[in-house]
Specification:
Oligomer: single chain
Number of domains: 2
Number of helices: 9
Largest sheet: 2 strands, antiparallel
Length: about 160
């Protein structure tokens, strides 16, 4: 069942990429923000993150200074060694993982640093936040590999 839902969501997303972009440009942002919590819940009643793990396989969160401090301490590493071992600087000047899938993704799609994970991971895919309408380019990028309430939107 979960595989079928994931397949349909991926197919629908690819087919409707342009529509999502147009939708985000013309939508009543206040209306969608009011509906986000319910749409978020609906999306994640249908998607099991441990079945999918597309975000960990295709996306790198930003590792901010507090994240680096917390995770390197967890591993008992100096921050500079943690950065050298796992991270690189992307085109936006942010620290991101060097490789995909995420080096902290276990074979069973669980996260070996789940309790210490970067704040971007904890918030991803930002589907219950105003990021979905305020950072539309990020939303369009994200919806290509992670479920989004806009795939469940009913105007």
């Amino acid at each position: 069942m979960a595989d079928n839902i994931l397949h349909n969501w991926e197919k629908k997303t690819k087919e409707h990429q342009k529509q999502y972009r147009q939708f985000l440009k013309r939508t009543d942002k206040n209306k969608i923000l009011k509906q986000l919590p319910a749409l978020h819940e609906e999306a994640f009643e249908k998607i099991d993150c441990l079945t999918c793990a597309n975000c960990c396989k295709n996306y790198s969160p930003r590792f901010k200074t507090p994240d680096i401090k917390r995770i390197s301490k967890h591993f008992g590493m100096k921050e500079s060694v943690f950065i050298e071992t796992y991270l690189r600087v992307d085109e936006d000047g942010d620290f991101v993982v060097k490789s995909s899938p995420c080096p902290f993704l276990n074979d069973d799609n669980t996260c070996m640093i789940y309790e210490k994970r970067p704040s971007d991971c904890a918030r991803f895919p930002y589907t219950n936040e105003d990021v979905i309408v305020k950072r539309q380019a990020l939303t369009i990028k994200t919806v290509s590999f992670a479920p989004s309430p806009i795939t469940f939107w009913r105007s």
